[in-house]
Amino acid sequence: MIPFKLTEELITDIENFIETKNNSALLSLLEDIHYADIAEIINELNEDEATYIIKLLESDKTSDILTELDDDVRESILGNLSAKEIAEELDELDTDDAADIVGELPKEMVQRVISEIEDREHAKDIVDLLRFDENSAGGLMAKELVKVNENWNVLTCVKEMRVQAENVTRVHSIYVVDDEGKLKGRLSLKDLLTTSTKTHIKDVYIAKVDYVNVNEKPEEVARIMSKYDLEAIPVIDEIGRLVGRITIDDIVDVIREEAEKDYQMAAGISQDVEADDSIWELTKARWPWLLIGMMGGLGAASIISGFQEALTKFPVLLIFIPLMQATAGNVGVQSSAIVVQGLANDTIKGAIWGRLGKELLLGLVNGLALAFVFLIISHFGFKTTYLESIAVGIALVTVVVNAAVIGTFIPIFLNKRGIDPAIATGPFITTSNDVLGILIYFSIAKVILGF
Amino acid sequence: MIPFKLTEELITDIENFIETKNNSALLSLLEDIHYADIAEIINELNEDEATYIIKLLESDKTSDILTELDDDVRESILGNLSAKEIAEELDELDTDDAADIVGELPKEMVQRVISEIEDREHAKDIVDLLRFDENSAGGLMAKELVKVNENWNVLTCVKEMRVQAENVTRVHSIYVVDDEGKLKGRLSLKDLLTTSTKTHIKDVYIAKVDYVNVNEKPEEVARIMSKYDLEAIPVIDEIGRLVGRITIDDIVDVIREEAEKDYQMAAGISQDVEADDSIWELTKARWPWLLIGMMGGLGAASIISGFQEALTKFPVLLIFIPLMQATAGNVGVQSSAIVVQGLANDTIKGAIWGRLGKELLLGLVNGLALAFVFLIISHFGFKTTYLESIAVGIALVTVVVNAAVIGTFIPIFLNKRGIDPAIATGPFITTSNDVLGILIYFSIAKVILGF
């Protein structure tokens, strides 16, 4: 397919059409563009232009566009729409997307928008979904699904299914519930079609069905669905009643967002920001880590000040400060990244002591190899005495081993405490290893060189 | 659902059953366990035990297990199976999974395994898929799909579809091709069922269909499918013929792997490793970055040696080396991470100069704020003169601005050259900023303090 390309010419054309109120040209231009691409266009327009387009197009298209817009753009457009106009958009959306939008509305608006929704059943479902924590299976699920009662016969079942399926974009599975609404299993379409119409559902359904609890974390839902290759999974409440369904497209978003968050944390960015956000937002996201890094740097400065004798007696030691610091930081980040990823993928098994032992050994191998390279280079490249070189080499091995152990221990510790271990791989580990590295370096040099 | 838990007791039970050849106990234990979970169990067993289980279970279950195993475990099990046994597994698998396994076999084995596959059509499809680069849409796609000729009438179409659908796990879409096999569009099941049986397909099909070219990169396929919320996408060859189909479950794997790779690169790990890999593998993956970091550290050592006067006249400057280095490294990683992510998501628009200008401004804001904090702390905490503090402060601002600009420029530059920009966020940027930071620091201090 010819991929859609957002060009400056296209934006200029659209802005001109809006300015001259040339609606027919605008409609025919946008007609063949996918809603996800129109959302990209609107993200580039100003508030008035964006609102103009949303008001111009039909709500079956604009509702989908709204779900794809950047949060701040959507917020400002919704601010220009009446409660009735917003309700019309919500009527077109699946309950999960509708609830996400309602969740972003100002409190005083929510009540009014909900009361304007035409389909009262739909409105009730949206209100139900608002109760759930955004960061849970309940916050991800939609109410749209196809379910049949185990006490129905096949004929009733087929009739009811036809009605229900009208509201469901992709059926995926037919779920079976009992009189209390509890999930009992699922139904194979094939069995349904090859069974006598008088057979009861309870005699043909498959009792084995994967499901998740409404309070389950999105990452766990993502893990289950991708491990078992599921395209949809039913969600049950605390007493086992079928309350919703999560589909794979929502999970793709969870996986993407989770990966982005971990990546940003590893890079020392504390909020979800994008390259095109404002300077203020970007500064807020970066500032905490920069400050922690700075405190680390000042901490290291204090430590070095404490070894005054070294500054005068063995000035050559000072030139290797960056080496110690960089190595400690790198090893710490490497070790922690592997552990964090292992924890996220659930591939870390066995006892914590075994893991630490392995990292210790790994650090020793890497540290000895690095020290070996250092000894050769320092012999030819720097005017260090043998004793000085040996002191630096031993410090290097110790720093590496220490950084590896700390890099492993901190994420495991955070994870046990219920804190997202991804936070550990950022400048947090780098900084603490920087400072510890300097301390270890000078302490070992002091013992060996005796200042 | 009660999540499957891999316990040591379970492994011990299974090992005991294997040792005592208690097949019935083993079969009844494994019967209710999902193939993805059995794969996890087998990953923990030794080669003989693993092979025993694969030979014991039926090939409709073991074929799925094989696709989920760790690469090295699968390789050693396949080494213990005959060509005929492997062919039986392949007969059960979809063509894409089968081709992946054949691609891992030793060359001398491929021919023999292929010739043992019972379903010759299936064997031909697998051979077709082997031609494609693993890192392309062709390498991801399966041959299983439902397609109808535009010249058929609805009756023929329904008959043919029934036959084809037997080999396809999930139908998703019905594709329409012409006599030459070129993709023309898709068919809605609803239209098919509500149209007279004599109508020709060419009169009812929908010409608008998303597709990708067989040479498209997996990341681009993932981007398209997740942007347009597609659960399956057809693949065409160079002259437009429908040759395969990619489903969302394969794309979930691509997204996960891509995210993991970027994360590991950012953490300075150059190969795809897991926490449970051998010490040797882990060392290989980490070593290149450690060596680069070390070279950076030694480079910094040379620079400091070059400023000998500073060591004697202004010893206090030396204690702030870690501060400069840590700040430069952190800012560089932050800037590059945002750009790398923006490039990956295709959210970076506009000219490179605008982007650099923004980072420059951002660096200036952050740098000035950090320098302000530094001046306060150094005044109370360290015995620096006013001039020394000002020199360090100005150096700090310059180092931050420089790191921000470099962190932005390098990924954009690499991307333009067709190199994966993710490589830039690792110790590569940290290291070059470390070294540059020290150089800038001493140069500015030299100008201001005049040594």
UniProtKB/TrEMBL annotation, chains A, B:
Keywords: CBS domain, Cell membrane, Magnesium, Membrane, Metal-binding, Transmembrane, Transmembrane helix, Transport. It comes from the Bacteria. Residues 141-204, 205-261 form the CBS domain. Its main location: membrane. One of its GO terms (cellular component) is plasma membrane. One of its GO terms (molecular function) is magnesium ion transmembrane transporter activity. The keyword Metal-binding applies. It is found in: Cell membrane; Membrane. It is a multi-pass membrane protein. The chain crosses the membrane at residues 287-307, 314-340, 360-378, 390-414, 426-449. The keyword Ligase does not apply. Belongs to the SLC41A transporter family. Acts as a magnesium transporter. Homodimer. This is Magnesium transporter MgtE.
